[in-house]
Amino acid sequence: MNLFDLPSTIPWLSLIWLSLIVPAVAIMFLRPDQLRAIRLVGTVFAFISLLLTVLVYAAYDYTSPQKLQFLEEVPWLPQVGINYLLAVDGISLPLLVLNGIVIFTGALVSWNIEDRAREYWVLLLLLAAGVYGVFVSVDLFLLFVFYELAVLPMYLLIGIWGSTRKEYGAMKLTLYLMGGSALIILGMVALYFGSSIRSFDMRLLAQVALFPREFQVAFFAPLFLGFAVLAGMFPFHTWSPTGHVAAPTAVSMLHAGVLMKLGAYGCLRVAMWILPEGAGAWLLPIAIATLIGALYGATIAMVQRDFKFMIGYSSVSHMGLTLMGLAAANAIGLTGAVLQMFAHGVMTALFFAVVGRMVYDRTHTRQFPELGGLFQQMPFAAVVFIIAGLSSMGMPGLAGFWAELNILMGMWQRFPLVAVLAGLAIPITGGYLLRAIYRVFFGELRDRRF
Fold first, then answer.
1. Is the C-alpha dihedral spanning 185, 339, 50, 128 positive or negative?
2. Does residue 446 carry a pLDDT above 80?
3. Which of 56, 91, 239, 358 suits a disulfide with 176, CB 3.0-4.6 Å?
């Protein structure tokens, strides 16, 4: 069942990522001093890409959520089994919409960028186009090309337009993610030569009979870990909070709101889909690592004095819960994981927008001891942050609650003790978020100039 049908002759998924590539190229031909034109082109086409994702979402047939829809297939390098192959299903569709929401809001908060604005907008649009491409790719080689297109601009965006220790944050992020990419390449090569079909078509690679159990167990680990690094899985998470703090506001929104979800999506779409027997052998170690990440991230967030660092470690905690849903390896756990990707993507983008574009721009500080009593000065920012915070701490009725409930129920069916211990992260999350809300918005006004 869908709301309406879209013409099947139009390549809708290609239009989505091309709607950002084309303006990125067009902006290159504008003069650096044409700031208004650069901003308008970037923002308008970010909105167009969002509209296209909403159209695809509305036209999707929800009676067959496991079926790949809007299929586009064009031979690219058929002699080596590489094709231009795009499609969406019930997993990738909500993440497609999430990227549209975050890139459009990120474009809106980027209007204050004046230094080398042309280059900034080109890189921002390329990053978002790469994320779109990953979510719609069904060919593994094509997915990796889009993956690199999404990851590589981060170094320049943080290194040039960042703030706190930006060079260190950019280099640390790049080294970690390139290490993850190396593991992904290893897994890709193993899949290609380990099968008899010599193809990167993930629909064909997902046929279990292609790979013996020993092969799956051996090569699931590098493939999963390569994507899990981008998802911020413990103990490979330390690049993430540093990158969040160093990045400009819009890049922080994309970083936490979408890029980390891209890592979790790769774990599910590539590693677990293609190598299910290998996944089964590694579920317990993954569950333990995600449990540590969820509790560790929440605990470290509790003691932070920097507003942005608190949100950065909060993202580590929530992504731990997301990957825990994958480790449950059952329908309810996977449902919770995908819902958590969407819910956390929206609320963490709101967090960074409030902290970077509203609170910091007005107060020029992110330190909790220097903030307080801002509700009267910034009521809109306070309300937005409180709503996002309530979802983050699992308030019943909001998306975060349903996501965490499904994850814990799924993990209870797989490893009950892990589920019980993971539940401790929820009250800790409530503790640091309520403390932040009180200190920043309802405490004593520290400076009348705010």
1. negative
2. no
3. 239
Which H or E run includes 70?
A: strand 69-77
CA distances from 332 to 166, 322, 325, 337, 344 (A): 40, 12, 8, 9, 18
Backbone φ, ψ for residue 373 (5° rounding): 65, 30
| Cβ 218 vs Cβ 133: under 8 Å | no
- Bridge partners, 72 (sequence order): 86
Q: What is the DSSP letter of 269?
A: I
Contacts 24+ apart (CB under 8 A), 412-416: 413/328, 413/330, 413/332, 413/333, 414/283, 414/287, 414/327, 414/328, 414/329, 414/330, 414/333, 415/283, 415/284, 415/287, 415/327
The per-residue pLDDT for range 37-53, each reduced to its tens digit, is 989 999 999 999 999 99
Query: What letter would DSSP give residue 163?
Result: -
Residues 6+ apart with CB under 8 A from 291: 320, 324, 418, 421, 422
- Read off the amino acid at residue 66: Q
**Angstrom distance (rounded) from CA 129 to CA 132:** 5
- More confident site: 415 or 446: 415
Percent of the chain with pLDDT over 90: 35
Partners of 201 in beta bridges: 139
Query: In whole angstroms, what is the distance from residue 144 CA to residue 85 CA?
Result: 13
Q: Are 439 and 372 in contact (CB under 8 A)?
A: yes
Q: What is the pTM of this model?
A: 0.89
